[in-house]
Design brief:
With 606 residues, this protein is α+β, with helices and mostly antiparallel strands. The protein has 20 helices and 16 strands.
Length: 606
């Protein structure tokens, strides 16, 4: 209450009401018999005096809001009622006039209250917007229609180094970006600048897809910061209810890190492109239907076309029927399993009809988790394969020559040397039966006779080892039965032969010979080095392959990482087995560990 008495607005309302009362009752208060004060302008019956009482009512609405204006309305009604009830001659008109004034006063009170509420909401909204802008991590400023700064948030302070107190109300929004005064994007929007002029000043300009009349651009500003900055600018208009531009808001984002990353990425892409284009190995990418998407020079070279000609062509145009079948299988496995275990060989035919063999590694390319293509890296192994074929041919010829020589030597030993020794034994027998030879000399002849018999047995064994006639006469399986029996006899090792499926099947002479040599070498190693008590030989026939396994329970040994190291350890026999099976286009596998025995498995096509 004490504060109310000290409020000048309260006393101003009291004065206005008092003045209204004095004007309303001049004769009663001052004995003034003159006509109404406003009668000289044509207003009679105290209508003007009653209208003047609206002034303190409206003012109270602005000064004291709803409660103050209602109290003032009641006070005005109390001022008017005595004249209306007692002093006015025409009471009907007086009541109408008084009621009208009160209604108008009530409407004025409601209007002022609405004005206050709307103004308060607008102010709160502006404060909230100001707080939102100020709290935004994006540097933001706003100008009005006079190009004066109305907003300058904290992020803008940090980016520009200019405090809001220094710049609000000025037109210095250009200072953080330029060395001399020039319009910003926000200024051009307020000035309703044409797009062409806009683009001329800022370049690389584009219209915002979200806000009508807004623009975006990216520019490098050398004056921003010690070494300049890349900034992303967005400027949008602020419109009133009529749609007229009354200001503009501009946001700035420091995109220097992104630009530097993009530049690094572009450099990396250029380096990758150079590596891709200049790679010696063919590299290409095709879609799931086999159409080339991109290929390097090496890939174009193997097809006999240019890179531009190769794009949109299909890989099946350069594959043999067998290669096309394999490529489709690789695609299926990539889509279902997303990878293939190892590179594969594929024959490629160029436009001139020449064929070449390539070792290819294929990888699935996905986008958003869906397969879209296949990347291929190839290596030309044509010369390598031809060299291997030549090598196999020479090895085959050498092996054949060795076997022919073995066969010739074995025949010579059997037909010549052995026969001569037999003839010599017969002569010794005749001498031993001659009674004229002294007993002492006859004993010496017996010793010579026994030695020659041992030599003859050794020659016969050596001849069989060089080329067992049973292999040529009866085939692989009887020869394996014979060699296992020999191991039993010579080394006292339990040796078993097991044949699965077709036991009467014959193979080519070359296949039977090489498989026999592998088993023979393996069994000799078991007898001489393994200290084994048992060895098992298993032969299994299938439709397209024959598998032979030799397994013992001997001491075993530690396998090297690479079988080529076996030669350094003196295990040349194992390398010989591997080379023999490779001559047949088969595979060689060995499994061994100390005190765990050794298992050798060979597989050859039939």
């Amino acid at each position: 209450m004490f504060k109310l008495w000290r409020n000048y607005r309260f006393w101003l309302v009291v004065i206005l009401l008092s003045a209204g009362a004095l004007i309303h009752y001049p004769q009663e208060l001052f004995a003034w018999s003159a006509p109404s004060f406003f009668s000289i302008i044509g207003l009679t019956g105290y209508i003007a005096e009653r209208i003047l009482l609206l002034v303190p009512i409206v003012y109270s609405g602005f000064a004291f809001r709803l409660k103050g204006s209602v109290v003032t309305l009641i006070a005005a009604a109390l001022i008017m009622l005595p004249r209306t009830i007692i002093l006015q001659h025409n009471q009907a008109d007086a009541w109408v006039e008084t009621a009208g004034i009160l209604i108008i006063g009530l409407l004025a009170i409601l209007w002022t209250e609405y004005y206050h509420v709307s103004t308060t909401r607008l102010t709160n909204a502006e404060e909230m917007l100001s707080k939102i802008i100020d709290g935004s991590p994006t540097a933001t400023f706003a100008i009005d229609s006079q190009h004066k700064v109305t907003q300058w948030n904290r992020a803008m302070e940090t980016m520009s180094g200019i405090k809001r107190e220094e710049i609000l109300g000025t037109d210095g929004q250009w200072q953080p970006f330029y060395t001399s005064k020039r319009p910003t994007m926000a200024d051009l929007i307020v000035s309703d600048t044409a797009f062409e002029e806009f683009n001329r000043q800022f370049g690389n300009l584009k219209k915002s897809p979200l806000i009508e009349g807004a623009y975006e651009t990216e520019n490098f500003l050398p004056g921003a910061g010690p070494s300049g900055k890349w900034l992303h600018f967005t400027a949008s208009p602020v419109r009133d209810k009529k749609g007229d531009v009354v200001g503009s808001v501009e946001t700035l984002q420091d995109i220097s890190e992104r630009k530097n990353a993009e530049e690094d990425l572009q450099k990396s892409e250029r380096r990758f492109r150079d590596l891709f284009e200049n790679a010696l190995d063919p590299i290409w990418l095709h879609d799931l239907d086999g159409y080339f998407i991109i290929a390097n020079q090496a890939a174009a070279k193997i097809t006999g076309m240019t890179t531009s000609e190769l794009v949109s062509r299909n890989v099946k145009e350069f594959l043999t029927p067998g290669g096309l079948k394999l490529a489709r299988e690789i695609r299926r496995r990539l889509i279902e399993e997303h990878s293939v275990e190892s590179p594969y060989e594929l024959e490629i035919i160029n436009v001139n009809g020449s064929e070449a063999i390539f070792m290819i590694q294929s990888n699935l390319i996905t986008s958003e988790g869906k397969p879209v293509g296949i990347q291929n890296i190839a290596r030309d192994v044509t010369q390598e394969r031809r060299m291997n074929e030549n090598l196999r041919y020479y090895l085959h010829q050498i092996t054949r020559a060795q076997e022919d020589e073995r066969k010739r030597v074995a025949r010579e030993l059997h037909d010549s040397t052995a026969q001569n020794l037999i003839a010599l034994l017969h002569r010794l027998e005749l001498l031993l039966h001659n009674d004229r030879i002294p007993t002492e000399e006859r004993d010496k002849l017996h010793i010579i006779y026994d030695q020659i018999r041992e030599i003859l047995q050794e020659i016969r064994r050596f001849s069989r080892d060089l080329r067992p006639s049973i292999l040529d006469d009866l085939g692989l399986l009887p020869a394996l039965e014979w060699i296992t029996d020999q191991i039993k006899t010579e080394y006292g090792i339990i040796a078993n032969l097991t044949v699965q499926q077709d036991s009467s099947r014959r193979l080519s002479n070359e296949t039977e010979l090489l498989l026999f040599r592998i088993v023979q070498e393996a069994l000799r190693n078991v007898g001489k080095h393994a200290h084994a008590t048992r060895v098992d030989v298993t032969v299994k026939f299938s439709q397209s392959y024959v598998n032979v396994t030799i397994s013992d329970n001997g001491t075993g040994f530690q396998l090297p990482d690479n079988l080529e190291e076996l030669s350094q350890r003196g295990k040349l026999g194992l390398l010989g087995m591997q080379e023999r099976i490779q001559l047949l286009g088969g595979s060689f596998d060995i499994d061994s560990a100390p005190d765990k025995g050794t298992t050798i498995t060979v597989s050859a096509p039939v």
